[in-house]
Amino acid sequence: xxxxxxxxxxxxxxxxxxxxxxxxxxxxxxxxxxxxxxxxxxxxxxxxxxxxxxxxxxxxxxxxxxxxxxxxxxxxxxxxxxxxxxxxxxxxxxxxxxxxxxxxxxxxxxxxxxxxxxxxxxxxxxxxxxxxxxxxxxxxxxxxxxxxxxxxxxxxxxxxxxxxxxxxxxxxxxxxxxxxxxxxxxxxxxxxxxxxxxxxxxxxxxxxxxxxxxxxxxxxxxxxxxxxxxxxxxxxxxxxxxxxxxxxxxxxxxxxxxxxxxxxxxxxxxxxxxxxxxxxxxxxxxxxxxxxxxxxxxxxxxxxxxxxxxxxxxxxxxxxxxxxxxxxxxxxxxxxxxxxxxxxxxxxxxxxxxxxxxxxxxxxxxxxxxxxxxxxxxxxxxxxxxxxxxxxxxxxxxxxxxxxxxxxxxxxxxxxxxxxxxxxxxxxxxxxxxxxxxxxxxxxxxxxxxxxxxxxxxxxxxxxxxxxxxxxxxxxxxxxxxxxxxxxxxxxxxxxxxxxxxxxx
Length: 505
Fold this sequence. Notes:
alpha+beta; 18 helices
């Protein structure tokens, strides 16, 4: 009995002392788990902060180099054709932007303003802001280019050059001129830019909004469906006719017979010969709009022949351009190589249209009925899609392009030459040379030379006590590693001479 009693007391004592330890262990585990969860949540929050919004991207130095070169090519072409540049706010009145883009109006980013002072939206393109600029400033004639960012609440496809924030490069001619002369120049500009950018084979597809409207009329389409039907037709380069036909019947409300009559026309394409063929269609030529369109297209082809570019032109009746403001000739550039293949998925480089535009004669007056009519025609270059292709081309190339603009590096092989390097850099900057040096008092010569080779800097100036005493500087050709001394007073002249020789080789 006594043994049982002592066993009971011992067990009770053990449990009494063990319970606090168990409690402490449990609390420690809970606190540790809570700390880990807090760390995980903090990491997740950090990841959500340290990323760009969907449909946007950062551009690294090598990518910006490509962009600068593309922009330079485009701007030089615009200037060659006599255009001046303007800029407009990235925000416009929501009322201004709405109902200008047809079904794409749903892609406009609207902005909540402070205390609802103004109803604002981010610009969808550069054309409507240009029309507002023309109307507001009472301009009757203008040839302008504009490069700026636009915003669309679209489904991003980054490898296909489709973003929510992206650049547009627009060239427009505003004013009353003789028919088709400005239009032909816009088409010529597209061809010049695409040739200079070396993107591969391409075709410029051309059509006329009035011709499409005449086709819709004789096919029995109600006028109120013209613009929405144009959006469906415009997708025929991405969807099959069966899908488009189904949309026309089930979503637009057309009869199967009407849809099939439309297909008989929109499947046609050719060149000047197609214009002649359409003139023999008595039902089509009974429409005033059709005759006006065919006259415009015939004249356009004549001018394009004078510009020696008709080999790149296709008259295609399924080209519609979905935007509501087009009223006349429309055109679109399509690359042959980078077409979308459904079997390859979304990771492929497929960009579709690379440039497009057309005539919009009524937009300015629609914004302000009191304004004089200012007809316009313009072209927009799809630079983001061009960037995607150029980056792809660079990734396939085995040559490493030079990114840094630096052409001369000032180095020293001895200690305590920081001030001499700084004075020499100042002299070179004042003489227009793109120059760098190490941001250290006593950098190692090997590190300086390796920096030059890594970044493909053409020349390295090496100064030391010997050069200071002799009034010379040592020049090193970074590529060949050849070194030679030149007098200090001839430095600028000799540097220009040697840089010129290097760039010729």
